[in-house]
Amino acid sequence: GQQVMQIPQYQHVQEGEDFTTYCNSSTTLSNIQWYKQRPGGHPVFLIQLVKSGEVKKQKRLTFQFGEAKKNSSLHITATQTTDVGTYFCAGPPYNTDKLIFGTGTRLQVFP
Amino acid sequence: GAGVSQSPSNKVTEKGKDVELRCDPISGHTALYWYRQSLGQGLEFLIYFQGNSAPDKSGLPSDRFSAERTGGSVSTLTIQRTQQEDSAVYLCASSFGSGNTEAFFGQGTRLTVV
Q1: How far is A79 from chain B (nearest CA, A)?
Q2: Is any Cβ of chain B less than 8 angstroms from the Cβ of A31?
Q3: Which of A88, A99, A104 sits opposite B99 (nearest CB)?
Q4: Which residues of B touch A99 (CB under 8 A)?
Q5: What pLDDT does residue B40 have?
Q6: Residues of chain A positioned with their CB less than 8 A from the CB of B93
Q7: C-beta neighbour count of A50 within 10 angstroms
Q8: pLDDT surpasses 70 at A56
Q9: Burial code of B76-87, b = ≥16 C-beta within 10 A, e = fewer?
Q10: Which of A91, B60, B92, B114 has an alpha carbon 20 to 30 Å from B42's alpha carbon atom?
């Protein structure tokens, strides 16, 4: 079946350190979306990438969509305690239009 | 309302009982999803409705689970003969288009089967 895996599963960093989560799909995705879920909350949309090799930035966050449209990454520069939460990638596998979520990466930031 | 609304927010039920979970999507959103999230885990896809098309039920874990969407708006997820392993947060999301557009989530229903 269609699988979207993320690594690492957990990451603990000291405030100010960088963080990266990687997303890998078993099938090509028509687009990749990233969501953030704060502890006790629900997922909230961050960004969408559509083009092969696309890179987008939001302040300290950099998102990348792979050339083959099967992988993606989210990089946070100089983490802050407000970055704490679980980051999910998501996308519709090729030939479908339903949104499948990755396994998620939980980020903990120590002050 | 302004966002996706789910009810109840919490539900405790006895093993073997049936439960109904409700989702009110954002007005005008044609796509509606149900996901299940166990404690500390990811979002497990359950079912997807898109407009008047037949729903994609490929994620429903067993025939005890069913869902319907009336009039292209409100959706109900029904779990029959609940089991303890059904305990989880059930999240509903809607989007204006398909999986190519941003999904908006409700606050979820926390289901506990005792």
Answers
A1: 22
A2: yes
A3: A99
A4: 33, 45, 48, 93, 95, 99, 103
A5: 83
A6: 43, 99
A7: 14
A8: yes
A9: ebebeebeeebb
A10: B114
d(CA A85, CA B18): 33
Query: B11: part of which helix (H) or strand (E)?
Result: strand B10-13
> Using one digit for the tens of pLDDT, what is the confidence trace for A61-106?
999 999 999 999 999 999 999 999 999 999 998 888 899 999 999 9
Give me the amino acid identity at B114.
Answer: V
pLDDT score of B114 more than 70: yes
| Residue A103 touches partner B, C-beta closer than 8 Å | yes
Category of B12 on φ-ψ map: left (φ > 0), alpha (ψ -120 to 50) or beta: beta
Residues of A in contact with B43 (CB under 8 A): 43, 88, 90, 101, 104
Placement of tokens 């979306």 in the chain? A33
The whole-angstrom separation of Cα A24 and Cα B98 is: 21
